[in-house]
Amino acid sequence: MTANGPLVLCAGVDRIYGQGSAATVALLPTDCQVGRGDRIALVGPSGSGKSTLLHLMAGLDTPTHGQLSWPAIGGRDELQPGRVAVIFQGPSLLAPLTVRENVALPLVLDGMRDADARTLAVDALELLGLGELADKLPEEISGGQAQRVAVARALSGKPVLILADEPTGQLDRANGSIVIDVLLDAADHAGAALVVATHDPTVADRFPTRWQMHSGQLTGPAASPAKTTPAKESSWSR
Fold first, then answer.
1. Is residue 152 classed as helix, strand or coil in its secondary structure?
2. Phi, psi of 56 (to 5 degrees)
3. What share of the chain is helix, strand, coil (3-state, %, to 5)?
4. What pTM was computed for the model?
5. pLDDT along the chain (238 residues), means of 10
6. DSSP state, 3?
7. Most exposed among 24, 58, 156, 200, judged by the fewest C-beta atoms under 10 Å?
């Protein structure tokens, strides 16, 4: 782990599903990195590879070739649930659990005492102005509120890298704008880097850096920071 290094570094990383004539190339060889404090919009149409790249950066998937590492964080086993937070298009809240319990769950699963996890969950909800929802069930809150709860859940572990995959995709324009406000404010509060995948230009315009994806190819400012290595089976820096 290098304290001053990038949070995530992709060098010649690609992702191919299947083999032979049935193979699907979801991501072409890609070089990019995310540093502390970055605010990046990953732009492209549905199916362009945005989700694949985010899932690789989060350690949720394994590259087919290339080198993927988290120099300022550590190994893949140190990413979740705290250091790297992932926010999906839908809030994915568990229906039987209250809002507070949903936010606390990743911390409990990581070994934190239940009482401590609930305290941090309430703190995260208060940060997003959702404290009054703590005892409600997911079915009792709106879609916009549920997505903000998902943000609170992601932030409860005090991440250094936040990856959001189409977080406004199921919301109307007003609620989508609120969620982006919350993400930007929360990243500032946590001192975290933020990467948001989106096909919405109004969302992308909120970010100082824009990466473009098309047919699995990453272009623009992200295309050259990392040194590409010859194609080989994926390796993980630990």
1. helix
2. -65, -45
3. 35, 25, 40
4. 0.84
5. 81 94 94 95 93 94 94 81 82 91 90 92 88 96 87 85 89 83 86 93 94 91 45 42
6. T
7. 24
